[in-house]
Amino acid sequence: QVQLVESGGGLVQAGESLRLSCAASGVWFSIGAMGWYRQAPGKQRELVAAITRDSTTNYVDSVKGRFTISRDNAKNTVYLQMNSLKPEDTAVYYCNARILIPPSMNDFWGQGTQVTVSS
Question: Pick from 98, 75, 86: which is nearest to 22 by CA?
Fold first, then answer.
């Protein structure tokens, strides 16, 4: 049984910062790429940032220069540091991890954490 537990969401004003965390627990062979997605009301879920096991990162254009994704492989945890937040960043943020449980790679999701940015 694999679980991803997120924390760190909340209500902030525009220009402020938040840090999201997502810790994986359970039994697996290895964790591959991890990422953060978000879904705003009435919109499709979108990839915000992703990081490979060797810490190669990519970001959606709208957060480049403001958000930083990182991971601690020893703690099976991925982070999203969000600076200079804007009202358009308001969404439910979901953690994702690709985890190898032989014989297959599987996608797991966190429960979501609300981020609300007021203007």
Answer: 75
Summarize pLDDT for 58-79 with one digit per residue, the tens. 999 999 999 999 999 999 999 9
Residue 60 burial class via C-beta count within 10 angstroms: exposed 0-12, middle 13-18, buried 19 and up: middle
Residue type, 112: G
Where the chain has pLDDT below 70, the residues are none
Buried-state track 7-34, b at ≥16 Cβ within 10 A, e below 16? ebbeebeeeeebebbbbbeeebeebebb
**Residue located via tokens 């709208």:** 62
What pLDDT was estimated at residue 52? 96
pLDDT value of residue 99: 94
**What is the chain's length?**
119
- Residue 75 structure tokens: 């703690």
Q: Which of 59, 62, 50, 56 is nearest to 96 (CA)?
A: 50
